[in-house]
Amino acid sequence: MSVKFYPLQFEPILKERIWGGEKLKTILNKPITSKITGESWELSTVEGDVSSIVNGIFEGKSLTEIINEYPNEILGTEVYKRFGKQFPLLFKYLDAREDLSIQVHPNDELAKKRHNSFGKTEMWYIMQADADAKIIVGFKEKSNADDYLKNLKNDTLLSILDEVPVKSGDVFFLETGTVHAIGAGLVVAEIQQTSDITYRIYDFDRKDSQGNTRELHVDLALEAINYNKVDTYKEYDTVLNQSNGIVDCLYFTTNFIPLDGKVAVHKTGETFTVYMCVEGAFDIEYGNTSHRYKKGDTVLIPAAIQSFVLQGSASLLEVFIS
């Protein structure tokens, strides 16, 4: 029996975080019940946090299950060839009521050696920013391990890190090794390699509800950090009804589509495509069917669907592997 593939939606995996809030509910309509929900994992195959399908004939199956059953049709021929039956990306929405910890992610080589994992290259799209919201990305000037450790010991680390004001629509691309932190008052769409490896190096000395501080990974981070000054901000065009390039790296390609009307999309079957709706609402039409999506929704288009139409009034992040 031939399977008719269709756009897949998943149950959000909600994560309480010490820095989280309630904006994932008030802004993105996620079904949170906690006042400290920091993350909604939209699309994940991280062990212990595998996304479950909520629509169509595959409802109740996990993303891992259907990839195992239909690797070429879900992932795409080239993605399957390169990654096997692993889904190589992780998609999230984050709500930072407070500053996140200052942290760094290892590259592929280090992550493989230490954790048998991918590294964690990532990008942030700022969906909402309170007045005066900021992020930390890298060093103000070229640094080194000794200078970094001295400032960490003297509680002056923030003085050598680059703090950047942000607004809605800003995009930042963070290669592995970039010291970073999402600041308070931000809602962020995050696209990253499939990895949950984070080295926390400074957490503002805060304590959880039990009075405990969170574990730091200062020694692990030393070898992972890029001490050079980095440029993470990405400029991009916003031409209506077109895929405007933002990031094109080894791990993923992300375009921005300001949709106002109809856009026909044609694919080759080599890669899946994911849409994150960061504003508005839209339909995906294919064959004789149509599905509606709204702000905060994330949808996976299996590689087997090679022609479809986007219709509506929305801002979309379009993600695939090239």
- Give the count of structural domains: 2
Please identify, by name, the CATH architecture of the largest domain: Sandwich
Count of DSSP H/I helices = 7
Q: Mean pLDDT score, rounded?
A: 96
Report the end-to-end length measured between terminal Cα atoms: 31 Å
> What is the 3D shape?
globular
Structural class assignment: mainly beta
Low-confidence stretches: none
Gyration radius (Cα, Å) is 20 Å
In spatial order, strands of the major sheet run 1-2-5-12-7-10
Please outline the major beta sheet: 6 strands, antiparallel
Task: Compile the SSE list and pairings.
Layout: E1 13-21, H1 23-26, E2 37-43, E3 45-46, E4 49-50, H2 63-69, H3 71-75, H4 77-83, E5 89-96, E6 102-104, H5 108-115, E7 122-129, E8 134-139, H6 145-153, E9 161-165, E10 171-174, E11 180-182, E12 186-193, E13 199-202, H7 218-224, E14 244-248, E15 253-266, E16 273-286, E17 289-294, E18 298-301, E19 307-320
Task: Describe the protein.
GO terms for molecular function: mannose-6-phosphate isomerase activity; zinc ion binding. Residues 248-320 form the Mannose-6-phosphate isomerase cupin domain. Zn(2+) binds at residues 105, 122, 180. Keywords: Isomerase, Metal-binding, Zinc. InterPro entries: Carb_Metab_Reg_Kinase/Isom, Man6P_isomerase_Firm_short, Mannose-6-P_Isomerase, MPI_cupin_dom, PMI_typeI_cat, RmlC-like_jellyroll, RmlC_Cupin_sf. The protein is mainly beta. It folds into 2 domains: 13-224, Jelly Rolls (Sandwich), CATH 2.60.120.10; 244-320, Sandwich (Jelly Rolls), CATH 2.60.120.10. Helix content is 15%, strand content 39%. The chain has helices spanning 23-26, 63-69, 71-75, 77-83, 108-115, 145-153, 218-224, and strands at 13-21, 37-43, 45-46, 49-50, 89-96, 102-104, 122-129, 134-139, 161-165, 171-174, 180-182, 186-193, 199-202, 244-248, 253-266, 273-286, 289-294, 298-301, 307-320. A 6-stranded antiparallel beta sheet has the order 1-2-5-12-7-10, with no helix packed on it. Strands 14, 15, 16, 17, 18 and 19 form a 6-stranded antiparallel beta sheet that branches. A 3-stranded antiparallel beta sheet has the order 9-8-11, with no helix packed on it. Strand 16 and strand 17 (289-294) form a beta hairpin. The longest helix has 9 residues, at 145-153. The two termini are 31 Å apart. 41% of the residues are buried. The model has no long low-confidence stretch (mean pLDDT 96).
